[in-house]
Amino acid sequence: MGLFTYRKRRRAKNQGEEQAKKAQSDEIDLYLKEEAKSFRRLCSVLLISIPESEPTAFALVRQMKFAHGAYAHEEFADFRPLIWKILLKNLRSIVMTIESRTVSRSNKANCEYIMNHRIDTDSPDFLFLPKFCRAVQDLWAEEIIPVLLDDPCCLFVDDNAAYFFAEAQRIVAEEYIPSIEDILHTAERGVIDTHFKMGQLSIRVSQVYGQVCGRRKWIHLLFEGVTSIIFYASLSDYDERVVGWDGRTLLNKSLILFESVVNSRWFLRTSVILFLSEIHQFRAKLHEVPLAQYYPEYVGGTDVNKGAKYILWRFMQLNRARIDVYPHITEASDTSNLRLLFVTVKETILQNALKESGFL
Fold first, then answer.
1. What residues bind GTP, as annotated (predicted)?
2. Which domains does the chain have, with CATH numbers?
């Protein structure tokens, strides 16, 4: 009897241990399943273009966001405090520089007012006072201002200061809402992130902002392991020459950047969605400026389809690493076509995420 009881207890203990192990295993499986679902829902996308195309590329991402119900006009307004701080910081720097120089008596008073005026740009109800706006406008009209801006040795301001000075009257206006250009010029670290959803898929699009040559040193530190890359280029750039670049065009510049991206060892597991935009402008320009003038081997004349396919071929020939490239020829301002296009982009991003997670 005692032996039977012992065995029964031992069997019950073993069953309990097995149940505990199974419960732990089920818990781990559930955790891994939820992690897999989360991975599929969270996708990091990198948007790359030459600096000259960055505003248009940024607008394209905003349209993607709008097309999926995630765009809010207030998001642009959220950049106002940062832009105001940049403007005020550099405005006070320029005031300190000119205080010892010859300016009109009225602008001496404007300088004092600008330096002494207390401003809380973080307040939700903040607006520039009309008197401050007039002081900025009058000071900007001084002849010495452009002289100082052209001489960096005597004026120490941020790299984006000249842009915001030029837009100062608009920025201090009561109805001011930042533009895409304004937002791009606030990108001190070289990256702007945009978040939105495509159905169950959460997308984070990171746009590299700044000079091409500087990107190669740090781009892999930020973006190694991204799900997809959106590369934006303009078809109509084929005749736009780059100043001081030996007669090369903006399209040449895009091709060089594309080549460095698709053949980078950091992106060998990443696919590229290639946007060739401005097809309408390209169609009109072909009749005025022959594509063969810049690419003598092209023989398609003014046929827009042949011209676009030729430029696409130039891009695809650079893909020596043979990574997946999904090309799309479109018009960034054509919202009706973009909606259909974004569905394709969503599917591409999702497929890439599934491949990366090992589900395909």
1. 332
2. 49-72+189-347 (3.40.50.300), 80-177 (1.10.400.10)
